[in-house]
Write a structure and sequence with these properties.
By secondary structure, chain A is mostly helical. In chain A, 77% of the residues lie in helices and 0% in strands. Classes of the chains: A mainly alpha, B alpha+beta. The complex binds protoporphyrin IX containing FE.
Chain lengths: 225, 256
């Protein structure tokens, strides 16, 4: 094994992989949210935004490949770590004392991640697929992306799945943000509490930001009529 | 005047040896609130021996919280419900009359149960043998304070060196990770001038053995720090991560 693969296969190496890919995804989410805010400004703004992305398509494709790689590595590594870490305990305790010594968010990263994964599959299968590949309603061809969003955000179960996933995304980010700093070795008694606060604010912002869209369209835009 | 005794139900993990399956056995005890947890087990063992039954096996040595030998998981908490004490410093006045206490051994695949509440923590020794030392192969005894060290740095190193190697971090961690222990041992040398020559080899060697022994990885839940009888800080784990990354760069430099 080369020294680099040995590094990546060590326990700390695997954690670094989670932190590098996770941090990349943290940045992606900010950009994704900012772009999607155009939804609140009506069909023209949103369709214009999606159309503008079309102009720089080659660049977007490159970013998408990196994004896919980040997700695949993050999910694959997360699954591997979860299995290994379950095995490391061996026999479970009869009494679970962990609520007394650690935060719920930190202990449920695999659960929150798995729900995000289910969401991700459905998200790509609906919006990404229809925008980019094939839209049976023929709306994407005529650049009426906004109407596709209105359609899905009018389906009650889609909205519920979306909102639940965003709450769990908030959980994942609340722990993940500061956890990545710790994994990179950036922990100092003086400024770490600030990093934890910034992470919590980031998590709340992302969860509310993304969840506000389906809620707005379902209840206020008349998606459910 | 003697304080009123507490009536407790103990549910203690009994296991004949590392190969057999274990189970919880109930014991009713009456104990003085002034007794320590281990004294209560001593009294229980006396009564068991009088009845011709086998004593509950558990480990202890100094019984003043500095040797790291004792360690029980009481109601799911390594070293019991109080912060920053070892099991031997836990007194029964912290429990209420009528309480039921589940007493379990430290659980980790790398810490196999030897008998009842005794576990094999020799994995920690193996990690130390891999790099938890400084090599001084020649010369006389150096003068104390010959190398100037800033007070803040020596205090940080002392804080890390306060680790008594009890294994509560592993027991508390949902992943049975030994990162708090290893990071304390790495830090106590990494912070001081004497630890520099072997700094980056040390961290790689110790992490390698830690991984081979089957300890889990660190998910940053910080349960270890919360349960550590010496309050070892997880900032040591951040230092370990930093040094491990730096080792990749620095050790490459000296490799031919
Ligand atoms: C947009 C989506 C996501 C973002 C921004 C994100 C971000 C992060 C971050 C920053 C961490 C902390 C890394 C560290 O501890 O150093 C993390 C950990 C983790 N993520 Fe994600 N994640 C996302 C999606 C997912 C998905 C889909 C899964 C699916 C299984 C997942 C599973 C995990 C697991 C299991 C951990 C804990 C790893 C460990 O500490 O051992 N994540 N994530």
């Amino acid at each position: 094994m080369s020294s680099f693969t040995k590094f990546l296969n060590s326990s700390i190496g695997k954690k670094l992989m989670m932190a590098v890919t996770g941090s990349f995804l943290l940045i992606f989410l900010i950009i994704h949210l900012i772009g999607n805010i155009t939804l609140f400004f009506g069909a023209e703004a949103f369709n214009g935004y999606v159309g503008a992305l079309d102009v720089v398509k080659p660049l977007i494709r490159v970013v998408e490949v990196v994004l896919l790689a980040a997700f695949v590595l993050h999910i694959f590594n997360g699954l591997k770590l979860w299995i290994e870490n379950k095995r490391a305990r061996g026999v479970n305790y009869k009494v679970n004392g962990s609520p007394e010594n650690s935060a719920l968010y930190s202990r449920t990263m695999f659960l929150s991640g798995s729900i995000i994964f289910i969401f991700l599959v459905s998200h790509l299968g609906t919006f990404f697929w229809r925008f980019n590949v094939y839209d049976p309603m023929g709306l994407a061809n005529i650049h009426q992306y906004f109407d596709i969003v209105v359609y899905f955000f009018g389906i009650w179960w889609y909205v519920i799945l979306y909102v639940i996933a965003m709450v769990l995304l908030g959980f994942h980010l609340n722990h993940g943000f500061q956890s990545a700093f710790q994994t990179f070795g950036w922990n100092h008694k003086k400024y770490f509490p600030l990093i934890q606060k910034i992470g919590a604010i980031y998590a709340v912002f992302m969860a509310i930001g993304f969840a506000s869209m389906p809620i707005y369209f379902f209840f206020f835009y008349g998606g459910n009529q | 005047m003697e304080a009123k005794k507490l009536n407790l139900t103990l549910k203690i993990w009994r296991q004949k040896n590392s190969n057999s399956a274990g189970s919880f056995i109930d014991y009713k005890v009456q104990v003085s609130p002034d007794a320590s947890f281990l004294e209560m087990l001593d009294e229980l063992n006396n009564s068991l021996e009088l009845k011709g039954e086998e004593a509950v096996h558990f480990e202890s040595d100094c019984r003043e919280g500095i040797c790291g030998t004792c360690g029980l998981v009481i109601n799911g908490r390594p070293h019991g419900p109080l912060a920053k004490i070892a099991t031997c410093q836990l007194h029964m006045r912290n429990f209420k009359d009528g309480d039921t206490l589940w007493v379990e051994p430290f659980r980790a695949k790398a810490f196999s149960v030897i008998k009842d509440l005794m576990v094999d923590r020799s994995g920690f020794d193996k990690i130390l043998q891999a790099g938890g030392y400084i090599s001084v192969n020649t010369g006389g005894v150096p003068d104390a304070n010959a190398i100037p060290i800033p007070k803040e740095i020596s205090s940080l190193a002392m804080d890390a060196a306060a680790c008594i190697g009890c294994g509560a971090c592993v027991a508390a961690c949902k992943n049975a990770s030994a990162m708090l222990f290893v990071s304390a041992k790495v830090s106590q040398y990494a912070l001081l001038p004497q630890g520099q020559p072997e700094r980056y080899q040390r961290v790689e060697k110790m992490v390698k053995v830690m991984d081979e022994l089957g300890f889990g990885s660190c998910t940053n839940t910080y349960a270890c720090e919360a349960e550590c009888p010496k309050g070892i800080s997880v900032t040591n784990i951040a230092r370990l991560n930093r040094d491990f990354i730096m080792a990749k760069i620095k050790n490459k430099e000296v490799e031919v």
